[in-house]
Structure formats: structure tokens, C-alpha cells
Amino acid sequence: MNGTKRASGRRIVLWRHGQTAWNLERRFQGSTDIELTDAGLAQARRSARLLAALRPDAIIASDLSRAAATASELATLTRLDVTHDAALRETYAGSWQGLTHEEILARYGEQYTAWKRGEPVRRGGGELETEVADRAAPVVLNHADKLPENGTLVVVSHGGTIRTTIGRLLGLEAHHWEGLGGLSNCCWSVLGEGARGWRLLEHNAGTLPEPVLGDDV
Questions:
Q1: Selected catalytic residue, list 90, 129, 193, 202
Q2: Catalytic-residue membership of 143
């Protein structure tokens, strides 16, 4: 055992961006750069006030405008710089991008069903979910490794990318990632550092995490 003491008690807050017009229309955004609506900006401001109370040590974000604008609201309150990284972008989904849910079902029904079963599918000829995790999770871990003891990292990204990153950090097999469920606009999930690695403390939350009291400590 070496003499280097690893930081402990760290938290990673994975925060989905605010509402966009394509969210309202149920259009698959993927890597298309869609801006926040006025309501989405208001969501970001409300959530930023809550997350600022966690006193984050660092903020990283996708460089797509909906995530960057969301992150900016927290940066203003915390006076932290935001590190933008294209590796945190949403899944590239090729020909699915810009289509509504109904259009995807009508044109790519078999592909959609296979994806929902947990099969590795290049939706619209785009990325596999494991490839999204391959690019996003190392970025998150790299920044988490720089945190002080009990430090907090806020990651501002997209629903699909957050889900795959959580799945990878928890060590779940890829076909189980769908079981994590989605995130509402401007809601977040919290991972905490435990004795055996990262643990999911909160999922699709819109309030600050409370301490776990009882047997599961």
C-alpha cells in the first residue's frame, strides 16, 4: 500500500439541461444544437439556486448550447468557471435526429424495439450507448479525481449521456442501463463515493439530497 491518500466522500451531480422546443415536440435531439426555451432558462435558474447550496468545487458541461446555457446559470451563482467538453454531448443518432417519437416508431419500429430490449443498436446509424459511455465517463472520472475530500462535481449534460455514464460508473452491464429511467428537464442524479466505488444516491431529483438515515449507511 502506497502512502498516497485518495480523496474520499466525493459527489458527482449529473444535471440535465433545461427544456427546449424539441423536447416539447418530442423530437429526438441527439447532437443537434437546440437552444433553451424561456421556460427552460427559468428551470435552469431555479435549479441553479438549489445546486449552488451544495457548494460545488467544479462544473463541467457539454458544449451544446442547451447544456452550456444551463451550466452558465450555476456558474454565475458560484463564480466557478465551466469546462466545456464535446465528449459530454448527447448521443449522435443519425437519421433519428429531428424526428418525433411517432415518426421514429413508424419508420424505425424494429430498431426502436430492439433498443428498448437492451440490444446494442446504432439508432439511425449513430452511436452505440456503450460508445457514448466510452467518451463521457472518462471525462467525468478525470474531473472527479481532481476533487478535494468531500468535494462535489456538477456535470451538465443530456439525458441519454447521463444515463449511460451512470451505468458505466456503477459497473452495470449495458443492457441494464435502460432500467435507470430518464431524467426530466433540469433534474439531476447524484453519485456518492462508497467503499466499493460509486453509489447512486439520488435519481431524477429536483430537490437537494437528504442524508440516508437507518440501516443503509
A1: 90
A2: no
